[in-house]
């Protein structure tokens, strides 16, 4: 009996130490993507909960839908063996596994992550066990053939889920998402201890996600232009500096588009500043709609706007800029308004922030001087 008590004590101590270390890791950042990566690495790492795969979905309350955000785990049995051997051989600790470079490389290569990010499903009973996890706010354990038959749908097939567990992510008495975890490759059974630890961890993770979201909303409010809702000039300068650092580290290219509304002063003089403000809001909406999720759009000042297109070389950016120009020209609400665009790429045109902006500005000036309503690079 004493021996059993000692074993239980050591087990509880080990679990608390693990949760403490994971909690510390989640407190090192307020960036949502980094938080999600730390959470899923905690679920899958040998130092954490040791599941083979983990997938995270967040609940979009406005649209009543579940949106796949990130998936971590090998794409095949062979890859699983290689990953586990590499971790053991190099004695990688938790901090090495969540290091930024590892995060970027893993997510870029992961087919599982691509599949997860493509998933969006309504939160209704017909959507299956993932939606029920949100609706009921409780975990579901699918371990028997009978349970698998009852939960069988296209999403379960797509993710190759066999024996798995879903656990809600909660924050302030609200269910904000869920984690799906399984042992697809080593076929290890999911037991009561696994579910208990995952549920305990999920409560911690839910608060970390909610704190990140609150922080991001504060950042947006503090750094947005009040008229257009886009980033303001000062925050664009910061984001451009960060993009240069990221692109330099990853050896990637990106492109800046400097955009100006043609003859905007004449429009304001003719129709008044209220009409001018309406045009600025409308054109901002067009820019948001035409942009990728990863693109950065900001109001540079007055009627000037600026874009950062991560990963885009100059040729790709010129095509995107032309598409943007046409979308404004053909918009029925723009009352004949057109734009001119200047294009400059990192690192081909410039490697320093000020010079890159200057090159884009000069290209914009060329577009204005040579007829307007055009793109120059």
State the main characteristics:
about 375 residues, alpha+beta, Beta-Lactamase, Alpha-Beta Plaits, 2 domains, six-stranded antiparallel sheet, five-stranded mixed sheet, about 20% strand
Distance between the termini: 78 Å
Strand order in space, largest sheet = 3-2-1-6-5-4
Largest sheet, in brief, is: 6 strands, antiparallel
Mean pLDDT rating: 87
Number of helices: 15
Please, what is the oligomeric state? single chain
Q: What is the CATH class designation of the largest domain? A: Alpha Beta
- The number of distinct β-strands equals 11
Helix content: 40-55%
> SS-based structural class?
alpha+beta
CATH architecture of the largest domain: 2-Layer Sandwich
How many structural units, i.e. domains? 2
List low-pLDDT spans.
none
**Topology as a string of helices (H) and strands (E):** HHEEHHHHEHEHHEEHHEHHEEHEHE
For this structure, the CATH topology of the largest domain is: Beta-Lactamase
> What is the molecular shape?
elongated
Strand content: 15-25%
Question: Can you describe what's shown?
Answer:
The chain is α+β, with helices and mostly antiparallel strands and 377 residues long. The protein has 2 domains: 2-220, 2-Layer Sandwich (Beta-Lactamase); 224-376, 2-Layer Sandwich (Alpha-Beta Plaits). 53% of the residues lie in helices and 19% in strands. A 6-stranded antiparallel sheet has the order 3-2-1-6-5-4. It has a 5-stranded mixed sheet with strand order 8-9-7-10-11, sandwiched between helices. Strand 1 and strand 2 (65-72) form a beta hairpin. The longest helix has 32 residues, at 192-223. The protein is elongated, with a radius of gyration of 25 Å. The model has no long low-confidence stretch (mean pLDDT 87).
């Amino acid at each position: 009996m004493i021996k059993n008590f000692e074993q239980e004590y050591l087990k509880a101590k080990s679990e608390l130490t693990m949760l403490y270390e994971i909690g510390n890791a989640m407190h090192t950042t307020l960036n949502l993507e980094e938080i999600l990566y730390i959470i899923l690495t905690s679920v899958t790492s040998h130092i954490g909960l040791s599941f083979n795969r983990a997938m995270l979905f967040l609940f979009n309350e406005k649209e009543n839908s579940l949106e796949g955000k990130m998936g971590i785990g090998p794409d095949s049995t062979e890859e699983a063996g290689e990953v586990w051997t590499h971790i053991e051989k190099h004695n990688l600790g938790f901090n090495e596994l969540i290091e930024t470079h590892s995060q970027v490389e893993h997510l870029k290569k992961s087919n599982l992550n691509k599949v997860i990010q493509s998933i969006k499903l309504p939160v209704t009973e017909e959507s299956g066990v993932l939606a029920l996890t949100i609706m009921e706010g409780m975990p579901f354990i699918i371990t028997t053939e009978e349970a698998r038959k009852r939960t069988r749908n296209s999403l379960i097939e797509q993710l190759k889920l066999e024996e798995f567990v879903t656990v809600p992510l909660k924050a302030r008495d609200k269910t904000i998402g869920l984690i799906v975890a399984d042992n697809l490759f080593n076929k290890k059974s999911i037991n009561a201890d696994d579910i208990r630890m995952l549920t305990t961890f999920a409560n911690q993770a839910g608060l970390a996600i909610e704190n990140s979201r609150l922080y991001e909303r504060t950042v947006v409010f503090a750094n947005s232009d009040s008229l257009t809702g886009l980033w303001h000039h000062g925050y664009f300068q910061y984001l451009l500096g960060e993009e240069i650092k990221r692109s330099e580290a990853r050896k990637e290219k990106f492109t800046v588009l400097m955009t100006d509304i043609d003859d905007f002063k004449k429009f304001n003089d003719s129709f008044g500043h209220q009409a001018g403000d309406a045009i600025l809001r409308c054109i901002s909406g067009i820019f948001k709609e035409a942009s990728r999720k990863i693109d950065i759009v900001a109001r540079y000042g007055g009627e000037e706007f600026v874009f950062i297109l991560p990963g885009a070389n100059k040729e790709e950016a010129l095509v995107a800029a032309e598409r943007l120009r046409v979308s404004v020209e053909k918009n029925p609400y723009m009352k004949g308004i057109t734009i001119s665009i200047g294009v400059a790429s990192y690192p081909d045109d410039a490697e320093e922030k000020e010079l890159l902006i200057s090159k884009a500005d000069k290209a914009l000036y060329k577009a204005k001087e040579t007829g307007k309503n055009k793109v120059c690079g």
